[in-house]
Amino acid sequence: MDLVKSHLMMAVREEVELLRGYIRELHEKNKELERENQLLKNISSKNLDAIDSKIEQAMVSLAPWIMLTA
Fold this sequence. Notes:
- By secondary structure, this protein is mainly alpha-helical.
- The chain has one domain.
- It contains two helices and no strands.
- The chain has helices at about 1-40, 45-70.
- The longest helix has about 40 residues, at about 1-40.
- Belongs to the TSC-22/Dip/Bun family.
- Pfam families: TSC22.
């Protein structure tokens, strides 16, 4: 019975360590997303319009190349 108990405890410890690592990764990702969110909140609409315009220009310039490779 002690052998079963020790194996079970070892399995639980391993699972706990995996979950702690996963939680740590989620906390880091959450901090990153919060920083990005704050940055986006602080960007003026004028800057957003400029960014949108540049993205649209890039997409238009890439469109022929994308069609050739498809």
